[in-house]
Design a protein that fits this description.
With 237 residues, the chain is mainly beta. 13% of the residues lie in helices and 39% in strands. The protein has 3 helices and 15 strands. The strands form 4 sheets. It has a 5-stranded antiparallel sheet, with helices on one face. The chain has a 5-stranded antiparallel sheet with strand order 11-10-9-8-12. The chain is globular, with a radius of gyration of 23 Å. 21% of the residues are buried.
C-alpha cells in the first residue's frame, strides 16, 4: 500500500546482535518496530526474518509500565511502519498533533467485504451506511457522517449511531449517488443493478456471464474498458 504522507517518522534506531529496533517515544505513547535477523546468512548481507510492531500508551499505564494498545507482525519494515502510522492516527486525539504522521490512514478502514476504504471524503456529509447484521441480513442507517477513532458515527437529529466499520457492507452519500446516476444509470445497457449490463461477455470485457441470460456482471472485477470507461474508479464497487 502506497500512501502519500507529509511527515516522516521520527524513529530512533538501535542495532544489537540479531535485533534491529526503531523506537518513537512521545509524552503519550511509545511505538516500536523490531526486526529479527536470520542467523547464518551471508557475511556482507543482513536478512531480517520478520518485523514486530506495537504502540503502547504512556498516559494510562499498566502497573507502571506502558500499556500495549495494539501490536502485530509484518513481512517488511514499510508495512510495519504503515501499521504504526494508522493506529497512532486513530488512537489519539487529533489535537495532540500526531495525525499528521498518519495522513489518510487515520480515515482508512477495512469493511466486512475486505475492501480498504478512505472515508475522509464522506465526513460532514449526509450518508447511508449498509450494515451486515449478525443474522446475515442487511440494515441501512442514515445520518451526518463522522469518524471517532476506530468507529463511525451517524448523527440524525438527537440520535447518534456508532458503527464498527468491519460490519459495514457499503457507504454512499447524496453527492455520490448523484454521480453514480449520471455516470452509470444513464447507460442504455445498464441493468440498474450494481455493475450488471444487458450484454453478453465479449473479448476485452472484464466481467463474467450474469445470473440472468444476456447479462454480464462486473462485481469484484477491474474496470471494464468496454462498459465502464467513463465511470469514476471509486464508484466501481
Amino acid at each position: 500500500m502506497t500512501v502519500e504522507l507529509v511527515e516522516p517518522m521520527p524513529w530512533s534506531f538501535t542495532d544489537s546482535p540479531g535485533v534491529l529496533m526503531w523506537t518513537w517515544l512521545t509524552p503519550h505513547f511509545v511505538a516500536r518496530i523490531t526486526g529479527t535477523e536470520v542467523s547464518g546468512g551471508e557475511v556482507d548481507r543482513r536478512v531480517v526474518r520478520s518485523y514486530a510492531w506495537d504502540v503502547s500508551d504512556l498516559v494510562r499505564t499498566s502497573q507502571g509500565l506502558p500499556r500495549t494498545l495494539v501490536e502485530g507482525t509484518a513481512a517488511a519494515f514499510e508495512e510495519a511502519e504503515l501499521c504504526v502510522r494508522e493506529h497512532v492516527g486513530k488512537c489519539y486525539d487529533p489535537r495532540l498533533g500526531y495525525r499528521r504522521f498518519a495522513g489518510p490512514l487515520a480515515f482508512t478502514f477495512t469493511l466486512t467485504t475486505g475492501e480498504r476504504l478512505d472515508v475522509s471524503g464522506y465526513i460532514g456529509t449526509r450518508c447511508t451506511v449498509t450494515v451486515l447484521m449478525p443474522d446475515r441480513t442487511e440494515r441501512a442507517v442514515a445520518g451526518d457522517f463522522a469518524v471517532s477513532h476506530y468507529k463511525w458515527r451517524l448523527v440524525s437529529g438527537d440520535q447518534v449511531i456508532e458503527i464498527l466499520p468491519e460490519h459495514v457492507l457499503r457507504i454512499t452519500n447524496r453527492s455520490e449517488a448523484a454521480e453514480r446516476a449520471d455516470a452509470i444509470v444513464h447507460s442504455d445497457i445498464h441493468s440498474g443493478i450494481g455493475r450488471i449490463y444487458h450484454e453478453d461477455p465479449r473479448p476485452g470485457c472484464t466481467g463474467r456471464a450474469g445470473f440472468m441470460l444476456g447479462t454480464v456482471d462486473h462485481a469484484g472485477a477491474p474496470r471494464c474498458p468496454l462498459h465502464e470507461a467513463s465511470v469514476p474508479q471509486h464508484l466501481l464497487r
